[in-house]
Amino acid sequence: MSKKRKDNKGRILKDGEMQRDDGRYMYRYCDAAGERQTIYSWRLVETDAYPAGKKKDLSLREKEAQIQKDLLDRIDTNGSSITLNELFERYIRTKKRLKQNVKENYLLMYNKHIRADYVGNMQIKAIRKMDILNVYDTMSESGLSNGSIHIMHNNILFPVLQLAVDNNWLRKNPAKDCLKEYPYDPLNKREALTLNEQNKFIDFLSKDKVYVKYLPIVSLILETALRRGEALGLTWDNVDFKSGVLRIDHQLHYYSVNGKYCFKAGSLKTDFANRVIPLSKEVLTILQNVKRNDYFTSINSGIEIDGYNKFIFLNSRKNNVIVPRQFGDAMIAASEKYNKQEEKSAEQEKREPELLPKITPHILRHTACTRMAEAGVDIKVLQTVMGHKRADITMNIYNHVDLSRIKKEFEKVDSQEYEYMLM
């Protein structure tokens, strides 16, 4: 009979266990791939005291129990040794069907907020829920919107770590339910402008020497609810003046390719985004004026992007199309300029200023949808105009009922009751 190994306290050690001369315990085993692995601990069992000056850690037997459970459940602990950054690279390579502009946005978000952060360099097996929550807290403190944090969770961190779970590298996803813990308010959506705010913004643009050049684009979006990239990517071939319709079949993108930013035209957000929008007389007049004034556009400009040419909206130099981010920044800057002027006027007139919210291209689209809903446009028609895959997405955009809409509905009721009394 072979003699059983014992530790320095006389306790019998199991197969694979041993104690080194410095008192540290070790355990050798074969992982799921058949490769030899070794784990260490300064304590044999959980009740052992921590040696002075040593980092707190699980005891050897606790670690062994985890290993046996992992082996039984076929968890590949070797795969869990890769870092989150390495896992992200593997994940992004698997997304073959992801549109290039979307992939570039995910890369930008990850590189900016995760890659250099401590969690990016952590082994995925060491990542805990608190680490994910700390990432979201840091993003929030840096000024990132709740919506962007939501995108980071649903489209990047959670699916990346889920890839490790699906490959049996992790037992559970540490990002699971993190948005429930994180104070993210799904009802805190970007709201539409009121009709009064919309009119004030249009009036400001029409009179401002700097931002008046964007008035045709803003007016077009407010009438058609186009996405920013759809509006900026429009060509004259999309406009049918005779039939009075606008055919949306592509949009403008601007993203990094091999470290260099460039324009791309094509690939709408979804297949449902391909649509035909009837044009009102006001929109037709706007487009006819743009074509007549030739301020933005030049049919013979020679600008061609992925086979598309004759773009309606060009930059002030008429040497290229408008960068989508530039247009977004211009809308924010214009609303801020309006507010500064309004605050000054209100102070002189000794009244409370009527300020505009931060206006973005998305809010303009949201506003257009809300105006249509207020006018009684059918939800299925709105869904088609907006280019949404599902009607509930459209509903979520304009289901906010503000005080002015409540008053209008009650006025209808009051009017009907009054007419009934006169009968």
Write up this protein.
There is one protein chain. The chain has 423 residues and is mainly α. The chain folds into four domains: 17-74, 2-Layer Sandwich (Double Stranded RNA Binding Domain), CATH 3.30.160; 81-181, DNA polymerase, domain 1 (Orthogonal Bundle); 195-368, hpI Integrase, Chain A (Orthogonal Bundle); 370-422. It is 46% helix and 10% strand. The chain has 15 helices and ten strands. The strands form four sheets. The chain has a three-stranded antiparallel β-sheet with strand order 1-2-3, covered by helices on one side. Strands 4-5-8 form a three-stranded antiparallel β-sheet, with no helix packed on it. Strand 1 and strand 2 form a beta hairpin. Helix 2 (84-94) crosses helix 5, helix 8 (215-224) packs antiparallel against helix 10 and helix 8 (215-224) packs across helix 12. The longest helix has 26 residues, at 324-349. The radius of gyration is 30 Å and the shape is elongated.
